Amino acid sequence: MSSSSIVAQKISVEFPIYDNSHRSLKKAVLNLTTGGRIGQDAGRHAVVRALDDLSFTFEHGERVGLLGHNGSGKTTLLRTLSGVYSPVRGELHVHGKIASLLDVSMGLDPDATGFENIYLRGILDGLKPTNIRSKIEEIADFSELGDYLNLPVRTYSSGMMLRLAFAISTTVEADILIMDEWLSVGDAAFAAKAAQRLESLVGQSSILVVATHDPGLIARVCNRKLSMEHGKIVADEPVIAPEPVAGVGSSL
């Protein structure tokens, strides 16, 4: 685990726009209202440059928070680190097993039972059937869904579906944890249990990368923060733990 690292060297991610009218006014408006820059690829197609020439290194022990407005490139960066998107330029080297908690409900089949979905999601996460079988009881107990696990997921409420998805997703054992916002699931009692499990998962990981709009979460969880604007990193700085307030906790 101590050898886990993420190294990005001048990576860029672009999305082509094939139906663009090329009007200058439209380009100007898009530049103001979307996170990516508008440009052209080698075939003269309009493209949105969602990540623009990023370079950074994340090493063992780092808890990295990504800050920025909607469209700044945070989620695109997380998906690139997770392997969903590939850079069109530059190099990205990831050493260590990645667990992605970007969309915990992804991969659930509504017509399959809860138990069947445990297998399906486990296979999507790259687990072997023997590994999945060893985790079924733990997942079932944590989800608290009982006999509902024998029913199709389409019969679940949205809260029940999230419980199942969260229970499956957080049984992973990984070196690098990728998250988009801090997950909150279910009623108060279950949410407290989920938060404890999530903090344990973060504590066991070698590297955490989390995108959030909450500076308080950054201060509580992270030791490094990157601020993003229009697909670029505009600040990369350590997170300074707040000093205790004098007199707090002392008797008067």
What is the level 1 CATH name of the largest domain?
Answer: Alpha Beta
| Strand element count | 10
Overall tally of structural domains: 2
Overall average residue pLDDT: 85
Instruction: Please report the number of helical segments.
Output: 7
Which shape, going by the Cα principal axes?
A: globular
CATH superfamily of the largest domain: P-loop containing nucleotide triphosphate hydrolases
Query: Which class best fits the helix and strand makeup?
Result: alpha/beta
Unreliable runs: none
Radius of gyration: 21 Å
Fraction in beta strands: 25-35%
Order of helices and strands: EHEEEHEEHHHEHEHEE
In which order are the strands of the major sheet placed? Answer: 6-7-8-4-9-10
- Which fold name corresponds to the CATH topology of the largest domain? Rossmann fold
State the CATH architecture of the largest domain. 3-Layer(aba) Sandwich
* Largest beta-sheet details: 6 strands, mixed
Which features characterize this protein?
single chain, 252 residues, alpha/beta, Rossmann fold, 2 domains, 6-stranded mixed sheet, 4-stranded antiparallel sheet, 7 helices, 10 strands, globular
What report would you give on this structure?
- With 252 residues, the protein is of the alpha/beta class.
- It folds into 2 domains: 115 residues, Rossmann fold, CATH 3.40.50.300; 105 residues, Rossmann fold, CATH 3.40.50.
- 32% of the residues lie in helices and 28% in strands.
- A 6-stranded mixed sheet has the order 6-7-8-4-9-10, sandwiched between helices. Strands 2-3-1-5 form a 4-stranded antiparallel sheet.
- Helix 3 crosses helix 4 and helix 4 packs across helix 5.
- It is globular.
- The model has no long low-confidence stretch (mean pLDDT 85).
